[in-house]
Amino acid sequence: MCLTGSESPVVVVLSGSMEPGFKRGDILFLHMSRAPFRTGEIVVYNVEGRPIPIVHRVIEVHEEGNKGNADILTKGDANLLDDRSFYANGQHWLKPQQIIGRAVAFVPYVGWATIIMTEKPIIKYMLMGVLGLLVITSKG
């Protein structure tokens, strides 16, 4: 977190909304800088009332002079409409404070382990059981 400036430096893409650029299960590495947000960059943002951050592309930015204030509109590449329906009730634009990082690199498919363990908890418990057995039965 100290090196990247992002509160969440690594995220897993959980849906197909960014295809074909990013697929479900891809891991994104995030960085946060003070540079102005630009149309076309991939950002990860939080919205009040939603527990999981959203990975989408900036499609429009309205800056207010040199104050660092901006209104940001995002959209998933595979989605027909912009993200206004995802934002908090009555909110039409994101603020820079809601963005937790900008995508700077990715590794395809590695996040599937996280998705499988979240969607199929039995697999997580089986894996924990096997690891526990290995610890108990190992010599050392």
UniProtKB/TrEMBL annotation:
Q: Name one GO molecular function term.
A: signal peptidase activity
Query: Could you tell me the keywords of this UniProt record?
Result: Hydrolase, Membrane, Protease, Signal-anchor, Transmembrane, Transmembrane helix
Q: What is its EC number?
A: 3.4.21.89
Its catalytic activity? Cleavage of hydrophobic, N-terminal signal or leader sequences from secreted and periplasmic proteins
Question: What biological process terms from GO does the record include?
Answer: signal peptide processing
Highest taxon in the source lineage:
Eukaryota
Annotated Gene3D superfamilies: Umud Fragment, subunit A
Subcellular location(s): the record lists: Endomembrane system; Membrane
Give start-end of the signal peptide. none
Positions in coiled-coil regions: none
* All residue ranges annotated as the Peptidase S24/S26A/S26B/S26C domain in the record: 5-63
Membrane topology, from the record: Single-pass type II membrane protein
Gene Ontology CC annotation, any one: signal peptidase complex
Family, similarity comment: Belongs to the peptidase S26B family.
Provide the protein name.
signal peptidase I
Q: Which organism is it from?
A: Salix purpurea
What is this organism's lineage? Eukaryota, Viridiplantae, Streptophyta, Embryophyta, Tracheophyta
